[in-house]
Amino acid sequence: MRRASRVVASSVALGLLLGGCASFPDQSNGAGVQDWQPQPKLTEAPGPEPNAPGGSNAEGGGNVQGPNGTPRQVPPPQGCTDFDQNVIGTCMAPLAAVAALPGGASGLAAERTTGRVLAVQRGQEPKPVATIQVDAATDGGLTGLALSPTYQQDQLVYAYVTTATDNRVMRFAVGDTPKPVLTGIPKGPTHNRGVLAVDRSGALLVATGDAGNAAAANDPSTLAGKVLRIDGLGHPAAGNPNPSSAVVISGLQDPGGMCTAADGSAAWVTDQTPNADQLYRITPGQPQLGTPAWSWPDKPGVAGCAAFTDEISVATVHKPGIQVLVLAKTGGFTGKPSTIMDGPGGYGLIGAMDVVDQNTLLVGTVNKDGGKPVSSDDRAIIIPKPNGGQPKD
Asked: Using H for helix, E for strand and C for coil, what is the string for 164-195?
């Protein structure tokens, strides 16, 4: 997911024990911030502007459907070669998270089951830049990705992962061994996903699942089922409801995406619950999630989200396409979501989203995980901002 503000606090250095109590890494033992040195930058190269029509269809090529429904002819993929000019990475495992790199023509893509993070760019094969040991036996693995708030200077990237013992946030730079930043988030048989974002003040937001224990979401003694907010030193960020706690909101069950608006005016989180899929607006100072901003009783599998000042886009992993909610001036939505790119010419199941700029999104597909993959799946794709559409009944 694009973190709307890139110029914010320095990289995070926080560790949490399994019981939920914070412990801070010894800054002299190789895990401290000062041991990190600037790394060679990933390529930032200009690329083609995405066309509004995009995406090879599930049968491979033909008359395809773009974000605004305009048809276009695209040859079918041949192996890992995809002729859709919007596709910038092919033949990967299902992508649970993506992060757009500065420059707009490249990004990072995270494979949930392998723990690999790959650099993707049009015309080049995906290049692994880090591999994190993960336990993907449940619904966990590598599920969250975010650039450092000061990425242009430090080249650091953060990932949310499931290990053999817990869920945690890791930090890495190209060529370095990934290091733990925040540990001890409970792990369970289900609901191990976690996602990352940066808020308007530059604090790092971490949304955690309830680890299969619904009661844990409202238990203040555990880090499960929470939105955590920490500063660049790993301490609870200034302005948290409890100055001594990283927990700012309770009540999550199985978060799939978190995003902030381009102007920093709002933050959102998606959550899959037994009764419905939900989209919540994260309200500072409100300790509980409260009433959902939108609810999907049909449970399409809400995952990554992308926030703009005029609309929210939500990816779904059980139903092809993207849900688009148009924001009203009152702060609510103008009507039912528009479902776009859900026809036979769409990209199939999309799990991850990030904002490239005010007109463009980077998305990642999960067609190998329950969809109808083409030969070039799973893919990282740059698409135009949906710009609403006509709501469907």
From this structure: CCCEEEEEECCCCCCEEEEEEECCCCCCCCEE
What span, in angstroms and rounded, lies between the C-alpha atoms of 295 and 44? Answer: 38
Residue 14 pLDDT greater than 60, yes or no: no
- Spatial contact of 12 and 171, defined as CB atoms under 8 Å apart: yes
Interacting residues of 21 by C-beta distance below 8 A, sequence separation 6+: 184
The pLDDT assigned to 105 comes to 86
Q: Could you tell me the strand order of the sheet in which 95-100 lies?
A: 95-100, 106-111, 116-121, 127-131
C-alpha to C-alpha distance for 276 and 303, rounded to whole angstroms: 13
Q: Which residues pair with 25 in a beta bridge?
A: none
277 preceded by cis ω (within 30°)?
A: no
Q: CA-CA distance, 223 to 210, in Å (whole number)?
A: 8
Determine contact, residues 338/322, Cβ cutoff 8 Å: no
Residue 146 sits at φ, ψ, to 5 deg, of -155, 140
Geometric angle at alpha carbon 2, from 258 and 106, rounded to 5°:
140
Q: 10 Å Cβ neighbour count for 62?
A: 16
Residue type at 10 in one-letter notation = S
Its pTM stands at: 0.83
Q: Is the pLDDT of residue 265 over 90?
A: no
Q: Report, in angstroms and rounded to the nearest whole number, the Rg of the chain calculated over CA atoms.
A: 19
Other C-beta atoms lying within 10 Å of the C-beta of residue 47: 16
Contact between 299 and 277 under an 8 Å Cβ cutoff? The reply is yes
Residue 103 has what pLDDT? 85
Copy the structure tokens of residue 234: 């790993």
Tokens standing for 339? 């479902």
| Pure H helices in the chain | 151-154
**What's the full length of the chain, in residues?**
393
